[in-house]
What we know:
- By secondary structure, the protein is mainly alpha-helical.
- It contains two helices and no strands.
- The protein is elongated, with a radius of gyration of 18 Å.
- The relative contact order is 0.13.
- The mean pLDDT is 91.
Amino acid sequence: MELKPEQIKKFIEIHKDCAGFENYSEEQIREIANGVANYYLTLFKIHQRIRNENKDVIVPDG
């Protein structure tokens, strides 16, 4: 997944006060932002898969 430029700008705005953030180049920040987005997208896909797999499980009463 590749973030749009406005999403990158928002990422920069959110993290501008983090220690050492100013030491990264624009290219490095874009790479970090895309990596973070892909990480959370992967977690969401795993969550959806687990949720869908558990729909098929029948829990017995009692």
